[in-house]
Amino acid sequence: MTAATIIADIKTRMGKAIDSLKHDFNGLRTARASTDLLAPVTVEAYGARVPVAQVANINVADTRLLTVQVWDGSLLNAVEKAIRDSGLGLNPQTDGNTLRLRLPELTEDRRKELIKLAKKYAEDSRVAIRNIRRDANDAIKKMEKDGLASEDDVRRNTDEVQKITDQFVKQVDDTLAAKEADITKV
Question: CATH for 35-102?
Answer without folding.
Answer: 3.30.1360.40
